[in-house]
Amino acid sequence: MFGLTLVPGLLVFLMLFGLFWKAKAILAVKPIGRLLLSSAWRPSRGEFGLLPFLAGTLAVTVVAMVIAVPISLLTAIYLSEYAPRRLRPIARPVVDLLAGLPSVVFGVWGVLMVVPLVEKLARLFHTYSSGYSILAGGIVLAIMVFPTIIHVAVEVFSSISQELRDAALSLGATKWETVKKVVLRKSGQGIVAAVVLGLSRAFGETMAVLMVVGNIPRVPHSIFDAGYPLPALLANNYGEMMSVPLYDSALMLAALVLLLVVLFFNSLARVILVRAERRAM
Amino acid sequence: MKGNGRQANDQGRGGGQWRRRRAEEGLFRVLMVLSLLVVVGCLTLIVATIIWKGLPALKLSMITQTPKGGYYLGKEGGILNAILGSLYLAGGATFLALLLGLPIVLYLNVYARRFSRLAGFVRFSFDVLWGVPSIVYGAFGFLLMVFFGLRTSLLAGIITVALLELPIMSRAMDEVIRLVPRDLTEASFSLGATRLETAFKVVVRQSLPGILTAVLIAFGRGIGDAASVLFTAGFTDRVPTSLLQPAATLPLAIFFQLGTPFPEVRERAYASAAVLTILILIISLVSRALVRRYTRHTIR
pLDDT of A61-110, one tens digit each? Predict the structure, then answer.
């Protein structure tokens, strides 16, 4: 049993080590700076610039967070501060269910509803878009990260002692003022952690985004352009990666970059949450 | 609330400021309710759209037959291979993850001292692993596969998905096992039970509903995940009969069917998505029912 407890930690290191070991082949030939900052992606000619994919991932993630953060936080505040008691046991399963839906289902829904919607929206702004775009990816992603942010935020809010709220209310503050000046201020760091966790979730999501984002390896210039996020690159090319020299190494480097970014965000969020929990005790 | 600590006077000093405070309150109340409606509405909209688009295309033959020749061009057949493949894969992976995860979680809660460094580190690792995207598990599973000389197969898929499920299941189990009252384990120790007996006969029994939910959550994730099996489980039109054969999975079947240019096949993708969604809904309902049923055995 004791031996087994070392498995999770070991797994993290094995993943890092394994991907790095595979990515070494391409890192030995090309400087890391050129790989990350070049936008030339022509595997058959040995050019593996990851910039379009990094930009694609960043763009979808930013759009998703802009949509998801206010909506999730307001929902979380409502559920923890305002909602009548009867509503709470209903709200939780709904959020859980949203978290449990497979990403392919989100993708199919995105193709059916979000893509046509974005196409119409683009016409409204007098630009052309096929609908398969950064915006479509961002919208689908936003819905997928709702549950993550809501869950963590509700937990953070509920760890604040009721006495603080009562004190504010007894001084004549309105409910919203209590939320703004007591609950939100007291849980600032926890909110950051909730957002960061949502962010890292969005960063690595693959199938749903892949299905609606267009997959054109160019740096996108508007949210109506198609993009090509890093996870989609991995998912689309696993089949041919063994046939071109260095291709598999380049893809494993992409996976390594993804893992490093997500590990950084996750560790950051967890450290913040653990600290906040300790302070609350 | 611009004035510092003069709240008591606000109402006395003309309604202006008070009215503004009330307006702000009202505005945010409306925004919050709207946000909640958006979240709930999205879920309803997604499930409704998938079922509404999928059910008309769903025929009995789709879930009872494997693909016949030319299925992906719109000919006869069904997706039984993918449904069974997904069930095998998620079943195997969930079993493996439970085999690994339950001892770890029990160790953390029964054997390790409170606030031990090791327990903190393991929980931290689980948290971090929970956030690792499934495509990275896929890439890692692929590396393992190459390292051990396996080909794309049910086994490789099971191992990869088990790794993906491990943190999801363990975190959920840890959350409920943590809630087992300390008095209960101490009472068990005082009666002369060993730690192992206490772990399985008291702690597991006490938190059985939670453990079941954790297992079902992980199972649902295993069925629904596509990115991790893309590299490792392969795809085939036949139902796998051994662990070393490749296996089709439902999410990938949806993905591939949606990628074809034929409208009939795309319709089938919607139908397959409806099947997957219904499966997930059933799992979620079953887990709720089980929790209610098995809560009877716990001591409060």
Answer: 999 999 999 999 999 999 988 888 888 878 888 888 898 899 999 999 99
Residues in chain A: 281
Q: Cβ–Cβ contacts within 10 Å for residue A99, how many?
A: 19
Evaluate whether A234 touches A206 at the Cβ level (below 8 Å). Answer: yes
Chain B residue nearest residue A230, CA to CA: B135
Residue in A238, A177, A181 with CA at minimum distance from that of residue A206: A238
Predicted model pTM: 0.89
Angle at B213 between CA B208 and CA B217, to 5 degrees: 150
Nearest C-alpha neighbor of A239 from the set B112, B48, B230: B230
pLDDT, tens digit, 9 for 90 and up, residues B227-270: 888 888 888 888 888 888 888 899 998 988 888 888 888 888 99
Question: Are B96 and A226 contacting, i.e. CB atoms less than 8 angstroms apart?
Answer: no
Strand (E) or helix (H) holding B107: none
Tell me which residue has tokens 């925004």: B31
Q: Which amino acid belongs to residue A155?
A: E
Q: Which residues pair with A48 in a beta bridge?
A: A41
Nearest to A172 among B7, B227, B231 (CB): B7
Nearest to B100 among A7, A91, A266 (CB): A7
Where does residue B211 rank: exposed (0-12), middle (13-18), buried (19+ CB within 10 A)?
Answer: buried
**Given an 8 Å threshold on Cβ–Cβ distance, is A177 in contact with B25?**
yes
- One CATH from 1.10.760, 1.10.287, 1.10.3470, 1.10.3720 for A52-154+190-280: 1.10.3720
Spatial distance between the Cα atoms of B234 and B253, rounded to a whole number of angstroms: 11
What is chain B's length?
A: 300
Backbone angles phi, psi at B150, to 5 degrees: -85, 155
Q: What is the ipTM of this complex?
A: 0.90
Which one of B109, B136, B225, B231 would you mutate to disrupt binding with A, by most A Cβ within 10 Å of its Cβ?
Answer: B136
